């Protein structure tokens, strides 16, 4: 502890603004508060050190390391050799599969994310009206998301949409023609989009919380003025919900671009790569073709893409997000 | 002042992190990694892929081994084929490959050899730890790469045309006992079965295996001698191959990808459900096929083709390898020796990992074989007389090229590419991958 005291003194001598505390101490403050505050900080950092260590060791270091790897030919085992921008050049000019994966991912995210958001909002609106047993419904509707990222749901999806699966059984029972949902390159991606939409629970809960926060008085006042429920939705609910919509949109866009499990488990990227999501291709490059350098480069491109999208959404939010505090 | 404090705390945290990580890795080395516990027993990690029946059998074999070697414990990690090599790649990256690893011949052995991840087993064979007396040279050669013996074959395998004899009888067709039948015969029989029974005649085969066989049968190889390019010049071969499959699908004699993509294991294969008469696959899968098919009359014969003698080859079903980073190579070698030389092993496993590589074990087994195993033994005998050596000139990029072949086969079968375009695209992509 001694060196630290010295440090403190030095700082205090050279930095006038800190004088204040020093004088207090010099004035013989019996509590000795300033020093203690310093100690408390250390203790605080010590207490959060498990997180800090985890963050530095398991998040920050791997992230930076992968940036380094993206400029190398690392093959998972050997020593990485610096190859400059080769991975990036190859990605953009010499890898048709890369562009296929990019296309699939944009299509998937572009449809699945709005789909999930709209669906979540509709369910949240419905639940907001339900009074009885709302807890039960909320739990039930949230369940698919709790087990959402899991393999189990994906396997269930595979069964449901398989050739002999429940969906086809129901269709044939009702007299409709059956279809090879997962085997047809045109429909396979849609089953994954449907799966994504179905796991709407967490955004739904956030919407619900947002809805609950809208003061009842607004609706009462507007109904006195003769507004019907649809008009109320557009002039009260939606504007007041925009901060929540912004939050949900950003979270879901990030999730949508990073989707992996469904395409890995349900379709394994097939048929004919029609469901080859970006992250799945990245995984294959890393662990099937021992091409970790290239996969790292892919990860960084995805990071940039997500950052751009997030920034764009934030930028656009000035025009459509309404904060109650602003209007005051 | 604030700044300084923050830095101090940061440094403190880093120091702590280093200490903690040092501690944890240190203790790992002391206990977990070396796998040696206080009472002197050694723990080996062992991995394989396979079906449920193989998992059960292998665990029984492990139990037998542990009874005979009370000082060795084996931790088993097993999965299906899907994902096995991805998992191994991750472990390899962490320098954490299992002591005993089930390895696959072809692109994977090449890949692992290339990255120097496996132990050269030659010294263990030379000093007798692994006894391979009486194993034919061609079989042993299949475990060699770059002059090193990197795997001991678990058994011998060959491609086989499985067929449901009852279905063929019902359709009034037969296959010559000699195994001499052409692709035309194969197509005609498939179509006839489809016409007579309304079921499929056959099922498309995995293109990575089938196309290679097709090339061999036409006197070519998939890769050239040093693995730097494709081993055939005339794309017409691939065009013919695609056209044949397309014709089968168009006539309804074989299902398209939308059906076979749904099959997730031998248990729901078309032939085991009685929905197809033919199924071309590896001979060691007879065990799984028979046990899943509820007593259907499934027989096996040589693959079709004008020159099937030239196309057929014996392949190590899989290999047992010891990873380079293993700390207990002697004990691991002991297990491989046990697996290769103990007749009990094959009494439990049957021909699931191929037919035993040791002649004396094959002889000894002959007296009390199950019906399925008898069938497979006879079949391997037959192939031994009608085959040419296996091609082992796979480049390290082969797994990516195989994936590309698989994708192009799908594209052609889904009619997104013509066979001619497909053949050209495969050549282009292979060249692109090989030139990288």
Indicate the multimeric state. heterodimer
Mean pLDDT of chain B: 87
Query: Order of strands across the biggest sheet of chain B?
Result: 2-1-3-11-6
SS-based class of chain B: alpha+beta
Protein chains sharing the most extensive interface: A-B, 44 and 39 residues
Largest sheet of chain B: 5 strands, mixed
- Annotated CATH homologous superfamily of the largest domain in chain B: Periplasmic binding protein-like II
InterPro entries (chain A): ABC_transporter_permease, MetI-like, MetI-like_sf
Keywords (chain A): Cell membrane, Membrane, Transmembrane, Transmembrane helix, Transport
Subcellular location (chain A): Cell membrane
Protein name (chain A): Sugar ABC transporter permease
Description of the structure:
The complex is a heterodimer of chains A (328) and B (436). Chain A is an all-alpha fold and 328 residues long. Helices cover 74% and strands 0% of the residues of chain A. Chain A is built from 16 helices and no strands. Chain A has helices at residues 2-14, 19-26, 33-69, 86-93, 96-129, 134-146, 151-161, 166-173, 188-198, 201-212, 216-224, 229-257, 261-267, 278-287, 292-320, 324-327. In chain A, helix 5 (96-129) runs parallel beside helix 9 (188-198), helix 7 (151-161) crosses helix 13 (261-267) and helix 12 (229-257) packs antiparallel against helix 15 (292-320). Residues 1-29 of chain A have low confidence and may be disordered. Chain B is α+β, with helices and mostly antiparallel strands and 436 residues long. In chain B, the strands form three sheets. Chain B has a five-stranded mixed sheet with strand order 2-1-3-11-6. Chain B is built from 19 helices and eleven strands. Chain B has helices spanning 2-33, 52-68, 84-93, 107-114, 122-126, 137-141, 165-171, 183-197, 207-217, 236-250, 257-260, 286-292, 308-311, 329-341, 343-349, 359-366, 371-385, 398-413, 419-434, and strands at 42-49, 72-79, 100-103, 144-145, 148-149, 152-153, 156-164, 278-282, 298-301, 314-316, 319-322. Chain B folds into two domains: 2-154 and 318-357, D-Maltodextrin-Binding Protein, domain 2; 157-314 and 393-434, 3-Layer(aba) Sandwich (D-Maltodextrin-Binding Protein, domain 2), CATH 3.40.190. In chain B, helix 7 (165-171) packs across helix 8 (183-197), helix 10 crosses helix 19 and helix 18 runs antiparallel to helix 19. The chains are: A mainly alpha (328), B alpha+beta (436). The A-B interface holds A 4, 7-8, 11-12, 15, 18, 38, 41-42, 45-46, 49, 52-53, 56-57, 75-78, 90, 94, 162-164, 180, 182-185, 268, 270-273, 283-284, 286-290, 292 and B 1, 4-5, 8-9, 12-14, 16-17, 20-21, 82, 85-86, 89-90, 92-93, 111, 115, 117, 256-259, 261-262, 397, 399-400, 403, 407, 410-411, 414, 416, 432, 436. Chain B: This is Sugar ABC transporter substrate-binding protein. Chain B: Keywords: Signal. Chain B: Residues 1-30 form the signal peptide. Chain B: InterPro entries: Bact_solute-bd_prot1 (IPR050490), SBP (IPR006059). Chain A: It holds the Pfam family BPD_transp_1. Chain A: This is Sugar ABC transporter permease.
């Amino acid at each position: 502890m001694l060196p630290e005291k010295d440090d403190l003194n030095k700082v205090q001598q050279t930095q006038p603004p800190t004088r204040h505390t020093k004088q207090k101490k010099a004035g013989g403050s019996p509590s000795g508060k300033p020093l203690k505050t310093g100690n408390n900080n250390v203790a605080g950092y010590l207490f959060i050190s498990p997180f800090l260590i985890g963050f530095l060791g398991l998040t920050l270091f791997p992230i930076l390391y992968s940036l380094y790897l993206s400029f190398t030919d690392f093959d998972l085992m050997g020593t990485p050799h610096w190859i400059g921008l080769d991975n990036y050049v190859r990605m953009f000019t010499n890898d048709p599969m890369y562009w296929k994966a990019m296309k699939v991912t944009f299509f998937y995210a572009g449809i699945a994310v709005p789909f999930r958001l709209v669906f979540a909002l509709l369910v949240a609106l419905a639940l907001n009206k339900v009074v009885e047993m709302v807890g039960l419904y909320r739990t039930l509707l949230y369940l698919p998301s709790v087990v959402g990222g899991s393999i189990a749901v994906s396997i269930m999806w595979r069964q449901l949409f398989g050739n002999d699966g429940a969906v086809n059984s129901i269709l044939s029972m009702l007299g409709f023609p059956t279809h090879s949902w997962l085997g047809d390159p045109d429909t396979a991606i849609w089953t994954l989009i449907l799966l994504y939409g179905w796991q709407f629970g967490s955004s739904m809960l956030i919407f619900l919380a947002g809805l609950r926060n809208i003061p009842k008085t607004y609706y009462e006042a507007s109904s006195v003025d003769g507004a019907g429920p649809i008009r109320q939705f557009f002039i009260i609910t939606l504007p007041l919900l925009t901060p929540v919509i912004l939050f949900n949109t950003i979270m879901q866009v990030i999730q949508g671009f990073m989707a992996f499990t469904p395409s890995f488990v349900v379709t394994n990227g097939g048929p004919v790569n029609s469901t080859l999501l970006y992250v799945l291709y990245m995984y294959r490059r890393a662990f099937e073709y021992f091409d970790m350098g290239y996969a790292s480069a892919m990860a960084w491109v995805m990071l940039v893409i997500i950052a751009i999208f997030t920034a764009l959404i934030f930028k656009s939010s000035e025009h459509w997000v309404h904060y109650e505090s602003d209007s005051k | 002042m604030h700044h300084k404090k923050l830095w101090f705390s940061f440094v403190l945290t880093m120091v702590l992190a280093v200490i903690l990580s040092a501690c944890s890795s240190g203790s790992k080395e002391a206990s977990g990694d070396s796998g040696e516990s206080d009472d002197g027993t050694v723990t080996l990690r062992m991995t394989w892929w396979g079906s449920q029946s193989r998992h059960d059998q292998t665990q029984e074999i492990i139990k037998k081994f542990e009874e005979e070697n009370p000082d060795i414990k084996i931790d088993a990690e097993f999965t299906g084929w899907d994902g096995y090599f991805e998992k191994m790649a991750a472990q390899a990256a962490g320098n954490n490959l299992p002591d005993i690893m089930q390895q696959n011949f072809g692109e994977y052995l090449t890949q692992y050899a290339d990255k120097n991840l496996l132990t050269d087993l030659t010294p263990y064979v030379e000093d007798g730890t692994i006894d391979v007396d009486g194993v034919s040279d061609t079989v042993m050669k299949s475990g060699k790469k770059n002059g090193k013996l990197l795997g001991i074959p678990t058994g011998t395998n060959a491609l086989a045309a499985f067929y449901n004899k009852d279905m063929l009888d019902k359709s009034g067709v037969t296959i010559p006992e000699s195994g001499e039948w052409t692709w035309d015969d194969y197509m005609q029989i498939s179509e006839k079965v489809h016409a007579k029974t309304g079921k499929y005649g056959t099922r498309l085969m995995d293109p990575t295996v089938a196309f290679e066989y097709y090339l061999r049968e036409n006197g070519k190889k998939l890769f050239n001698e040093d693995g730097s390019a494709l081993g055939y010049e005339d794309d017409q071969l691939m065009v013919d191959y695609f056209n044949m499959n397309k014709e089968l699908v168009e006539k309804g004699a074989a299902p398209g990808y939308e059906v076979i993509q749904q099959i997730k294991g031998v248990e729901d294969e078309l032939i085991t459900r009685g929905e197809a008469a033919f199924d071309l696959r590896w001979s060691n899968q007879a065990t799984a096929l028979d046990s899943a098919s509820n007593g259907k009359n499934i027989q096996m014969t040589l693959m079709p083709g004008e020159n099937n003698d030239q196309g057929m080859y014996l392949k190590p079903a899989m290999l047992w390898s010891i990873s380079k980073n293993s700390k207990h190579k002697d004990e691991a070698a002991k297990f491989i020796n046990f697996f290769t030389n103990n007749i009990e092993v094959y009494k439990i496993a049957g021909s699931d990992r191929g037919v035993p590589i040791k002649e004396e074990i094959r002889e000894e087994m002959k007296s009390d074989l199950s019906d399925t195993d008898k069938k497979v033994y006879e079949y391997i005998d037959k192939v031994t007389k009608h085959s040419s050596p296996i091609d082992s000139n796979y480049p390290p990029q082969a797994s990516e090229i195989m994936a590309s072949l698989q994708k192009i086969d799908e594209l052609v079968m889904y009619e997104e590419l013509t066979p001619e375009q497909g053949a050209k695209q495969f050549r282009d992509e292979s060249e692109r991958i090989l030139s990288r």
